[in-house]
């Protein structure tokens, strides 16, 4: 491997405080620094962001980061700014003026990273400016979204490769993901049109995590008993917001310090809850899958899935938040027949009939009184509850219809976005000074704004009315009124904050007959989802294969038994080595593959001590890998 120039390690040390890169980070940086395309497969907690942030800071020019996760964009930009690194994010919910100012700043203001959602990348405003930027790297995060075989396929990702013609073929592309099967990796390379990319892949095996599946109808009793026995902090994942609150309440009632977390909570409350858990004030956080992005707590000792996710990818990613410090940790999946039925039913719920999807699209257009042929790039506050009540729709069917319309590229639906108030000074510093002299009643407030926040002359800056109220001794309403009056006088541009979700029409409104939901895409995505659900059910019901080997095998990486998970522990009780066990099983498969045999015939045909062969035959019968036919002969279950 070619040694990286010192500038990259110096940048890592200066801004991130680390003296060495984590495994594979250096190799990925080396590939893109040499101007090559690359695919980086780094598991959850592997430090993907460093692979494009360090080159972006070390080199002149701008790094374009494409990601579908608005919360991730905001979180990373905030962190980078705290490190005095100039970064910008362009996402849904921003006004045209905000986008234009942000792009101008990136063009002229020595910014190093520009985060953008794939949908924004397609807008004429963005496309027209792209050739003017000095891009040194394009990082495509969550790259599995480009593949129909990926677990979160987004058609907007299919247009990313088009920007190569606008920014120059020589700009390297870096595709990053934590979870991709070999088929998905092949798709990523083809659809991003990567040129001879280096595939840099960390092992999917998390040797310090022991995986368990526990079948129980009383999940509460199991969790309480386990948490009283085991030490350390952890996460419990549940499938609904309501359940997160209920389970946390149950734990607190049984003397376990717990709290709940979901996307419906106000941002400041979410931040406080995450902080309390991170500092150890709260031992267990009970959360929906909204909890995970930006977690850098290394000493998580357990992740329990109260409810089973709908794919191996999601389970691997969420359970992988345990044990990032390298010390022993546990990942437990609670399983029951009800759980299996819920997952099987999820196929019907997640894929509403095509006509229902069209009903929802038509209803949204009517809801906002949007004429056919208009409304492209228009943004609306969207209250799902009010909408479904107005049209008497099912909440889950509507939500999943919106997701499908988003996948098809007709609109964007941002679930629980939190946009704070933003302020941008429209006048120059000199003109502002003249205004302060002439309008003494605003002078103290303007000074308060300038002392509290920086950068407002060059860009829209998020402001918190509560913070300003506390610092000035004024009420929140008084602060709000000052901002409105300064805006009406043309001194600032003030965009009041919103906490509601948004709907953005990415295309003009179509009439029903022109709304095309591709049957091929619909069926492909549905079949893929059914496959993934079947695999997670197989993982949960599997009683013979090592849990860790099952997970890594799904991602195309073959590993031996871990020796610690629940299935390995059962096999360990046979007092046979892995080598002996596998040899005996291979021989049984060979003998029964030719013809069914009675147990005594099978045992006598084996080349191993009878007591060892009998143990394995009995174990295979117990786990239903061997079955009896009508003649009481043994068959291998396929």
What distinguishing features does this structure have?
638 residues; alpha/beta; Rossmann fold; Arc Repressor Mutant, subunit A; 7-stranded parallel beta sheet; 6-stranded parallel beta sheet; 21 strands
Describe the model.
The longest helix is centred in the last third of the chain and has 23 residues, at 519-541. α1 (6-16) packs across α3, α15 packs across α17 (395-407) and α18 (429-438) crosses α19 (440-452). β20 (626-628) and β21 (634-636) form a beta hairpin. With 638 residues, this protein is of the alpha/beta class. The chain has 27 helices and 21 strands. The mean pLDDT is 89. The chain has a 7-stranded parallel beta sheet, with helices on both faces. A 6-stranded parallel beta sheet has the order 8-13-12-9-11-10. A 3-stranded antiparallel beta sheet has the order 14-19-15. The two termini are 45 Å apart. The protein folds into 5 domains: 6-201, Rossmann fold; 209-335 and 542-547, Rossmann fold (3-Layer(aba) Sandwich), CATH 3.40.50; 345-418 and 501-529, Arc Repressor Mutant, subunit A (Orthogonal Bundle), CATH 1.10.10; 421-495; 574-636, Arc Repressor Mutant, subunit A (Orthogonal Bundle). Helices cover 46% and strands 15% of the residues.
Globally, the shape reads: elongated
Q: Quickly give the structural class.
A: alpha/beta
For the biggest β-sheet, the strand order reads 3-4-2-5-6-1-7
CATH architecture label name of the largest domain: 3-Layer(aba) Sandwich
Number of strands: 21
Find the CATH superfamily of the largest domain. Answer: P-loop containing nucleotide triphosphate hydrolases
Computed Rg: 28 Å
Largest sheet: 7 strands, parallel
Number of helices: 27
Integer average pLDDT: 89
Give the domain tally. 5
The termini sit apart by 45 Å
Fraction of helical residues: 40-55%
**Proportion of residues in extended strands:** 5-15%
CATH class of the largest domain: Alpha Beta
CATH fold-level label of the largest domain: Rossmann fold
Q: So what's the oligomer here?
A: single chain
Uncertain runs: none
């Amino acid at each position: 491997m070619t040694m990286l120039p010192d500038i990259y390690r110096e940048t890592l040390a200066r801004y991130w405080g680390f003296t060495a890169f984590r495994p594979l980070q250096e190799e990925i940086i080396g590939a893109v620094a040499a101007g090559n395309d690359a695919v980086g497969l780094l598991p959850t907690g592997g430090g993907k962001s460093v692979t494009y942030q360090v080159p972006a800071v070390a080199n002149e020019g701008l790094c374009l980061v494409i990601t579908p996760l608005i919360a991730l964009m905001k979180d990373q930009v905030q962190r980078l700014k705290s490190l005095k690194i100039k970064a910008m994010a362009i996402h849904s919910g921003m006004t045209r003026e905000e986008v234009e100012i942000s792009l101008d700043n990136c063009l002229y203001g020595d910014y190093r990273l520009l985060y953008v959602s794939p949908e924004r990348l397609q807008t004429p405003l963005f496309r027209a400016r792209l050739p003017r930027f000095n891009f040194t790297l394009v990082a495509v995060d969550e790259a599995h979204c480009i593949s129909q075989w990926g677990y979160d396929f987004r058609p907007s990702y299919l247009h990313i490769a088009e920007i190569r013609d606008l920014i120059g073929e020589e700009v390297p592309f870096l595709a990053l993901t934590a979870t991709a099967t070999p088929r998905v990796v092949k798709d990523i390379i083809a659809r991003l049109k990567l040129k001879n990319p280096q595939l840099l892949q960390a092992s999917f095996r998390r040797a310090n995590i022991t995986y368990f599946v526990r079948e129980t109808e009383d999940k509460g009793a199991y969790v309480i008993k386990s948490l009283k026995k085991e030490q350390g902090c952890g996460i419990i994942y549940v499938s609904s917001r309501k359940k997160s609150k209920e389970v946390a309440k149950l734990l607190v009632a049984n003397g376990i310090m717990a709290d709940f977390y979901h996307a419906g909570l106000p941002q400041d409350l979410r931040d406080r809850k995450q902080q309390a858990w991170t500092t150890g004030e709260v031992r267990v956080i009970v959360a929906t899958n909204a909890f995970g992005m930006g977690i850098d707590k290394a000493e998580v000792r357990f992740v329990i899935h109260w409810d089973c996710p709908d794919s191996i990818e999601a389970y691997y990613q969420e359970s992988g938040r345990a044990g990032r410090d390298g010390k022993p940790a546990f990942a437990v999946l609670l399983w029951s027949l009800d759980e299996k039925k819920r997952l099987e039913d999820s196929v019907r719920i997640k894929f509403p009939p095509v006509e229902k999807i069209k009903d929802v699209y038509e209803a949204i257009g009517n809801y906002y009184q949007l004429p056919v042929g208009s409304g492209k790039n228009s943004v609306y506050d969207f209250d799902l509850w009010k909408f479904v009540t107005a049209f008497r729709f099912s909440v889950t069917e509507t939500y999943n219809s919106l997701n499908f319309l988003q996948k098809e590229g007709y609109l964007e639906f941002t679930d629980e976005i939190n946009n704070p108030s933003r302020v941008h000074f429209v006048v120059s510093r000199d003109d502002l000074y003249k205004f302060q002299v002439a309008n003494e009643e605003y002078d103290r407030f303007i000074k308060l704004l300038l002392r509290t926040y920086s950068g407002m002359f060059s860009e829209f800056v998020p402001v918190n009315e509560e913070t300003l109220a506390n610092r000035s001794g004024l009420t929140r309403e008084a602060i709000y009124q000052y901002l409105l009056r300064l805006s009406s006088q043309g001194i600032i541009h003030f965009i009041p904050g919103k906490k509601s979700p948004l709907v953005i029409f990415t295309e003009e409104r179509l009439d029903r007959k022109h709304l095309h939901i591709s049957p091929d895409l619909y069926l492909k995505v549905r079949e893929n989802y059914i496959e993934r659900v079947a695999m997670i059910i197989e993982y949960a019901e599997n009683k013979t294969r090592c849990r860790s080997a099952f997970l890594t095998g799904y991602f195309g990486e073959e590993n031996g038994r871990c020796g610690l998970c629940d299935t390995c522990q059962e096999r360990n009780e046979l007092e046979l080595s892995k080598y002996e066990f596998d040899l005996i099983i291979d021989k049984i498969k060979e003998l029964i593959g030719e013809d069914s045999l009675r147990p005594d015939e099978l045992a006598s045909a084996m080349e191993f001590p009878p007591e060892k062969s009998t143990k394995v035959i009995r174990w295979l019968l117990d786990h239903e890998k061997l079955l009896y036919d009508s003649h009481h002969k043994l068959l291998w279950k396929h």
